Amino acid sequence: MSKYKLIYCDPPWSFNNKRTGGSMKSGADAQYSTMSIEEMKQWDIPAICDDDCILIMWWVGSQPQEAIDLCKAWGFTLKNMNGFVWRKLTKTRKPFFGLGFWTRAGSESAIIAVRGKPKPESRSVRAVHSAIVGKHS
Q: Could you give the CA distance from residue 51 to residue 4 in angstroms, rounded to a whole number?
């Protein structure tokens, strides 16, 4: 089986807070099946990775330690917590006003982590991207 030099994932994060996780119609559990951090650690991601591999993983702002732990469980070394930032926009291209406990989220971030010594394909990739939110963004 060929191995991947890039793993791009958006894990189905579970939430302890019922308002963002399960009891509200807008919560993650109401939109798609979620998994615990322990369940996701069991995914055999290392089996599909090249020796020199980059992980780009979307993570939840309220769970930074869980995101770091998941990277480590899969054998990756964290390089940047905000490797990519999605600045969310409404359909009218205004800043999105999302959910949140401490602040109302208007963006999501993706970690960049590595296994081995992969090299960037380009040094001109922008970290921040603006795009309209979808059904369960």
A: 9
Query: Domains of the chain: which residue ranges?
Result: 4-132
Sheet with 77-89, edge to edge strand ranges: 4-9, 49-59, 107-115, 77-89, 128-132
d(CA 131, CA 82): 17
Summarize pLDDT for 16-32 with one digit per residue, the tens: 655 544 455 555 555 66
3-class SS of residue 45: helix
* CB of 132 closer than 8 Å to CB of 73: no
User: What are 69-116's pLDDT values in tens digits?
Assistant: 999 999 999 999 999 999 999 999 999 998 888 888 899 999 999 999
In this prediction the pTM is 0.85
Q: Are 96 and 133 in contact (CB under 8 A)?
A: yes
Report residue 16 CA to chain centroid gap.
Answer: 17
d(CA 114, CA 17): 31
